[in-house]
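Researcher: Please translate sequence to structure tokens.
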Amino acid sequence: IFGCPFIRGSIHKPGDGTILIAALQTIGGLVLLLGGAEILVRGAVGLAERVGVSKMVIGMTIVAFGTSAPELVVSLDAALTGVPGLAVGNIVGSNIANILLIIGATAMILPFATKSDGSASDSMVMIVGTLSFVGLCYFGMLGKMAGIILVVLFVAFLVYSWWRERSSDSPRADDVDAVPHSIPVAVAMLFGGIAGVVFGADILVEGAVFVARAVGVSEAAIGLTLVAFGTSVPELATSVVAALRRHADVALGNIVGSNMFNMLGIGGVVSLVTDLPVEQSFMTFDLPVVLLATLMLIVMMWAGRTIGRVVGVGFLGFYTYYILAQFYAIKPVL
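Model: Translation complete:
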């Protein structure tokens, strides 16, 4: 269920299906994603309520793990089948999508405050993780030593998250309607939702890749944009549903945890398996973009600013420019 069959050394050529079937498959994947995300959010909130853990931490750990599974599978598969550049691109592109697309889309649905008891420390953790990953990338290669550093930082991030939760007076999950009231049911819903969003993302991207190639979109453009977007769809679906359910803390925690998982967890594990060369184009454009996007979010978290619809439009506009820059020769050297 966690397989991503559209990556086998490069994006495989579509079979004998039709564009109509692929379009229906894409729609079906989206429906499955949204349904799985609804179950996932309810299960996560219910679990937080039952065990007394804050929804922010649940979003930063369990939900982020589940929704980052496509990035892990795609990046590992790409690295092991001789396309390490796609692995790096998937990590960087997914993090950019997580901040600009998902935060932007979530804010358009429901403006939310970034200020919480742990927002300052969360922002510091995020900037340390981002600077560590980007800094190692600028050596031109993510090798085993870089992998060890990233994995150690990731383990430290997880330990710190739970330590802070146990030693702080952060607010617990509030009672909400339509959430499970037993731990076994909550866990079943949580993992059922994770399976739904991951499998839904898989068939959504496979159908979308078929349609894109059928209408003449280049494989390079698909790899830089559609694959990164597709593996971020679970985060998008989960965060949007969390916003609709008025659990913005789950949405923000999901983004913070997912980005840390992508850079430190996935980047570390994949670079331990095989060396990941970092192309020059990443250093001159994509890595500066992910740094800028992260800085924008962190500044708002430090300032305790509400991310409203105006900011959401700005984030979405920035992401649109980034996507267009992948298709056209409009990449400035940043």
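Researcher: Any highlights?
Model: The longest strand covers residues 7-8.
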